[in-house]
Amino acid sequence: MNVPATREDLMIVNMGPHHPSMHGVLRLIVTLDGEDVIDCEPILGYLHRGMEKIAENRTIIQYLPYVTRWDYLATMFTEAITVNAPEQLGNIQVPKRASYIRVIMLELSRIASHLLWLGPFMADIGAQTPFFYIFRERELVYDLFEAATGMRMMHNYFRIGGVAADLPYGWIDKCLDFCDYFLTGVSEYQKLITRNPIFLERVEGVGIIGVEEAINWGLSGPMLRASGIQWDLRKVDRYECYDEFDWEVQWQKEGDSLSRYLVRIGEMVESIKIIQQALEGIPGGPYENLEIRCFDRVRNPELNDFDYRFISKKPSPTFELSKQELYVRVEAPKGELGVFLIGDQNVFPWRWKIRPPGFINLQILPQLVKRMKLADIMTILVQDINSFSRLEYLKEVYGMIWVLVPIFTPVLGITIGVLAIVWLEREISAGIQQRIGPEYAGPLGILQALADGTKLLFKENLLPSRGDTRLFSIGPSIAIISILLSYLIIPFGSNLVLSDLNIGVFLWIAISSIAPIGLLMSGYGSNNKYSFLGGLRAAAQSISYEIPLTLCVLSISLRAIR
């Protein structure tokens, strides 16, 4: 744990976990000397879902739907590492066509992950345009995923010994079209970003990591290759069929944030090259090794076994994990994603340990941000860590009651205020005319207005014989609807509280002024001068004191609510 300095002129600032770049899972305690960062302490552990313990209580097939939640930006890689571990443990052969399909899906997932790194990274340093551009290509990748797997993000596509389904008809041609289109999109990114002087000023020479530092801190992925080390597990471990394709490892030697940006841009281009070669040379044959469905399966379990007592059915098609241990790794977009697996002659893993790349890369963050500016923290954090929080992501869901309460609160306050005004009006009128009535409904007569409205609704429909029936009927509706509309046009902010009182008051005046028009329409439609004079009197009464009184209560109640 880093102990922050305690000089009197230093300031300790809390960044996160609600900062837009923290995603709700990371908090930074930053010690500042003005704008200079003196110390930084990352605080983790806000969100956990027990993915490792869930794996140790499920078969591999049962656990596959869970793994895409490790990192929903690179879902194919989490599925790949989940099936690669038991495949190597059981020495299971994968058909050549299935291996090609896996490579295509992995590289598409790498592109999608790098795109959703590029957009937020540029937004965090002040450039909003690329954030919208990246979603254009990313949606095309997800369309391809949906056509092949049936799902856009949580695919559940990989299987032990192959994949769940073959590529549909026409999918290869669409993917080739996407590759040609995407190369033009990368050219746009380079024209817009790479040679932009403001962008270069923000990233060039920021967060430099040397070769020895990168090795000693255990960094991997673009962070390692941007420091001058040509280390890519696709070349080193030769898993799947990557050694059959012609592609180059992208690397830089400067070790700064600009180098890490260039590495990721280059990797997207290389991924397109791999996909094109795989699509053109994909062989025929099966897409899954069906023989492994009967490999070391537990057959005819007894009635007292775990399966019948707790699962209530036979386990999914799977096999026993032999009593040995191994470590399996793949080159994910953020770095080395690994799983340490221990088998115990059981269908459940005895130990399942995940090695997330972002968590390991986070260790060097305090050293990188020291002696940098406060604004450089976002550049280094998003550039280097690249959404490490995706390992165990939890989306907050708020109850509907807490959404509706802020809406009904001002409406209820305004309604009560209007009722109070009507009651006060009746009291004053009764006092002037020296009579007691007509307030009889409710305590002190405050519900008389509600009673009058209810009585009016249920009265017989009296229409003048010589009047304009249509105009006479529309008038009251306009008067009532305008009052209801006044609750809808008040502008609310993000928390559903009035954002601007002045604008709200003027809008309320504008919409409420329609009510006297309805009163005049009713009086005029009766085709009777006395009724028309009554309409004029009602409109004048509404304009003269009912609207101003209601406006006063509205202003006071909204101000109190704010």
Q: Could you walk me through the main structural features you see in this protein, from its secondary elements to its overall organization?
A:
The chain is mostly helical and 562 residues long. The chain is 53% helix and 8% strand. The protein is built from 21 helices and eight strands. The chain has a three-stranded antiparallel sheet. Helix 4 (96-124) packs antiparallel against helix 15. The longest helix has 33 residues, at 400-432. It is elongated. The chain starts with 10 loop residues before the first strand and ends with a helix. Residues 387-403 and 491-499 have low confidence and may be disordered.
Question: TL;DR?
Answer:
The chain is 53% helix and 8% strand.
Describe the protein's topology:
Blueprint: E1 11-15, E2 27-33, E3 36-43, H1 51-55, H2 60-67, H3 75-90, H4 96-124, H5 129-149, E4 158-159, E5 162-163, H6 171-194, H7 197-203, H8 211-216, H9 222-225, H10 233-236, H11 257-281, H12 306-311, E6 325-332, E7 335-342, E8 351-355, H13 357-361, H14 365-369, H15 376-385, H16 400-432, H17 448-458, H18 469-488, H19 501-512, H20 514-525, H21 529-561
Antiparallel strand pairs: 1-2, 2-3, 4-5, 6-7, 7-8
Helix pairs in contact: 3-4, 4-5, 4-11, 4-15, 5-6, 6-11, 16-21, 18-19, 18-20, 19-21, 20-21
Number of strands: 8
Q: What general outline do the C-alpha atoms trace?
A: elongated
What is the rounded Rg?
34 Å
* Strand composition percent: 5-15%
Instruction: Encode the helix/strand succession as letters.
Output: EEEHHHHHEEHHHHHHHEEEHHHHHHHHH
SS summary, helix count: 21
